[in-house]
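Subject: for your reference before the review

Hello V.,

The reviewers asked for a structural picture of the protein, and I figured it would be easier to keep everything in one thread rather than splitting it across files. Below is the amino acid sequence we used in the manuscript, unchanged from the supplementary table.
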Amino acid sequence: MKFKLLSLILCLFLVSCKEDMDNNLESDVIKVTLEGTELYEHKFSDSHPTEGGYNIRKQAQNYQTSEMQWATYNYQAKEGFKGFEKVEIVLTGSSGDDNFTDHQKWIFEIEVK
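And here is what came back from the structure prediction:
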């Protein structure tokens, strides 16, 4: 019984360590300055992973458009908005076992004038 309990605790510890490593993924910070409702487009790649993809993890708050289209991020501020937005995008993938992990992370710091 003690061995099973110890094994369970060890497994839970290892799983929690893996989750912490994913959360500590380094971020590329991209600073953007836009005028009004100017459309911003950032192309990550010409290809798209077979399993996984680019996902908005933290969405902007004041936008007309803030979306991923294939491997391109598009942002356009809401009419009349001036200020700062922060958007977090991650690239997730799997080796075919449906165990998706974060591979890369980008943080867009957008200033709308």
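For the response letter, the relevant points are probably these. The longest strand covers residues 101-112. Strands lie at 27-34, 40-43, 52-58, 63-69, 72-77, 83-93, 101-112.

Happy to draft the paragraph if you're swamped.

O.
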